[in-house]
Write a structure and sequence with these properties.
This protein is α/β, with parallel strands linked by helices. It has a domain at 4-82 and 280-353 and 461-505: 3-Layer(bba) Sandwich (FAD/NAD(P)-binding domain), CATH 3.50.50. It contains 20 helices and 23 strands. The strands form 5 sheets. A 7-stranded mixed sheet has the order 11-10-19-20-21-18-22. Helix 1 packs parallel to helix 13 (279-291), helix 1 packs parallel to helix 20 and helix 14 packs antiparallel against helix 15. The longest helix is centred in the middle third of the chain and has 16 residues, at 196-211. It binds flavin-adenine dinucleotide (FAD). Flavin-adenine dinucleotide binds next to helix 1, helix 14, strand 18, strand 22 and helix 20.
Length: 506
């Protein structure tokens, strides 16, 4: 690939549509014609890398928060949306990736405000905290489904597989000794503070369900920072939460004024989605970006980023584009290879964030085949089971007279359970066996989809907070106009990804 230093003439006519110079340049004779690539010397341009939800949100916020720069978004695949992927078939919608967004917290409110600004209000479907899907969450232990305690009454009652009422864990926390540390695993923290059973039957399956990860390796300071902080300060999580209320997250006053946020609070929304699936969000956001004159380029993998005095040059197969700033919304492992030639140190640090692969099998059955409505169930890692959990999609958001379940498998354990390239048949067989054995569904699914989502969830392992701090410090030290957003750094959910994009461009 020809580098910018080989350029002898970078002038060219300004493209009136996008205020950039599209230049076919003359290059040093020593370079073969094949190496000739198009070079753009943009006037005040910002490049957003990655067209997942964080890239789309970053481009949107750049525009709406007043940037006067030209904005170019580059996406490697042929579609936008990243892991958000809602597939329609015969009137049914299958979510291959995320399916629900939480309404709570400032990140939740921020996504609602974005949805409102995009005119999505009419398309929202939501459920509140009294819905069966919010109330009934189960875990599978010794081949039996157990409902997790969900009310004050059940907190004071012994519910199997726990050997004591959950309230006893609070007592445990009051008397457990504080251990001074900067970070530790979620499992170790929960087990120290609340007892082994809470770690084993609540935190471990939850970690598998949300992060497809191993609670013994994931970081408490990254994933439950506040609980760790109050323990360090007050010696007990519960006492700390009570005494330290002033430091709890305060609702953002600007977001509080948003009508959709007010409605969600009033109606006590727990989670929401959109008709047509979460990809509706992507499609509407994409339309808005086009209307706003943002240049969206799909099927354009970024191959490298080079320094060019105070600017950066983004390299693709066809172009080298000089830009004032790069907002990277690439997964850290992808950014690592893109930045390697410019900064091996940054690349190495990015490589320390591991990823988990998840096998996702969507199963559709005719009619209502579940005995009881629920969110679904999770499987603790102590169980001899390849499945992380089963989500009862149509209990949360019904789709006529059909039942859709999603079986997730592998995660942190994918390779050891399935090897490198399991067949679709193998994953389908694991999924159908699981629902047959646990849910007693013996009929064949009328439709199914099997997908392996490779390296789809970043794992915030112990030390992650320090890693992401060091990454940003290193970028600052390098004095390059690069900022990081996306789910690799400050939260793995869609709300976090959108919030990270907003913060990166503010
Ligand atoms: C199975 C699953 C279930 C989930 N469920 C939920 C849920 O219910 N609720 C929730 O809130 N979150 C959920 N999540 C998490 C959520 O999907 C992510 O937080 C979010 O989609 C991340 O968006 P992103 O834009 O940061 O990253 P991505 O979606 O990974 O997007 C990154 C983009 O960068 C592109 N790219 C990569 N390399 C290059 C390159 N060199 N050049 C150009 N482009 C490149 C990729 O093609 C991709 O489009 C789930 C995730 C998975 C995998």
């Amino acid at each position: 690939m020809a580098g910018l230093d080989t350029v002898t003439d970078v002038s060219g006519p300004i493209n009136p549509n996008n205020n950039t110079r599209n230049i076919v340049i003359s290059i040093n004779k020593s370079i073969s014609l094949q190496e000739c690539i198009h070079k753009r010397k943009a006037i005040n341009m910002i490049a957003v890398l990655g067209g997942g939800i964080s890239g789309l949100a970053a481009a949107h916020y750049l525009k709406t928060l007043g940037s006067s720069s030209r904005i170019l978004l580059l996406e490697a695949s042929s579609r936008l949306g990243g892991w958000i992927n809602s597939v329609e078939q015969d009137g049914a919608v299958y979510e291959l990736g995320p399916r629900t967004l939480r309404a709570a917290g400032n990140a939740g409110a921020n996504t609602l405000a974005l949805a409102e600004s995009l005119g999505l209000r009419e398309k929202i479907i939501s459920i509140n905290y009294s819905h069966a899907s919010t109330q009934n969450r189960m875990i599978l232990v010794d081949g039996k489904l157990h409902k997790l305690p969900n009310s004050l009454k059940t907190v004071f009652t012994k519910c199997s597989p726990f050997s004591k009422p959950l309230a006893m864990s609070a007592v445990n926390d009051l008397f457990a000794k504080k251990v001074v540390n900067n970070d530790e695993s979620l499992f170790s923290f929960a087990s120290r503070r609340f007892g082994l059973e809470i770690a084993k039957y609540a935190i471990d399956p939850l970690t598998r369900g949300v992060f497809a990860g191993n609670a013994c390796e994931l970081s408490v300071t990254s994933l439950a920072r506040r609980l760790h902080e109050v323990e360090q300060q007050y010696g007990s999580v519960l006492v700390g939460l009570l005494k330290d209320r002033k430091n709890a997250e305060k609702p953002d006053p600007l977001l509080r004024k948003c009508e959709l946020v007010i409605q969600a609070r009033k109606e006590k929304w727990a989670v929401w989605s959109l008709s047509g699936g979460l990809e509706t969000f992507v499609k509407v956001l994409q339309e808005k970006l086009v209307q706003d004159g943002i240049e969206l380029k799909t099927s354009t993998p970024v191959k490298g980023i080079k320094k060019s005095s105070s600017k950066l040059v983004v390299q693709t197969d066809e172009e080298e584009i000089e830009v004032n700033k790069v907002v990277s919304c690439l997964p850290s492992r992808n950014l690592s290879s893109v930045i390697r030639a410019t900064s091996p140190e940054l690349s190495q640090l990015l490589d320390t964030i591991p990823y988990a692969t998840v096998g996702v099998v969507n199963l559709e059955y005719k009619g209502q085949v579940l005995d009881e409505p629920a969110f679904g169930y999770l499987v603790p890692s102590s169980q001899p089971n390849k499945v992380l959990g089963v989500i009862f999609d149509t209990c949360t958001f019904p789709q006529g007279d059909r039942t859709i379940l999603t079986v997730m498998m592998g995660g942190y354990w994918f390779k050891s359970l399935f090897g490198d390239t399991p067949s679709s048949e193998e994953l389908l067989e694991v999924a159908t066996r699981e629902v047959k054995e646990t849910l007693k569904i013996t009929m064949k699914p009328v439709h199914y989809k099997v997908n392996i989502l490779r390296d789809c969830i970043p794992q915030y392992v112990v030390g992650h907070s320090e890693t992401q701090h060091n990454l940003r410090k290193l970028i600052q030290h390098m004095k390059i106009p690069l900022c990081l957003a996306g789910n690799s750094y400050d939260g793995v959910g869609v709300n976090d990804a959108i919030m990270s994009a907003k913060r990166a461009v503010l």
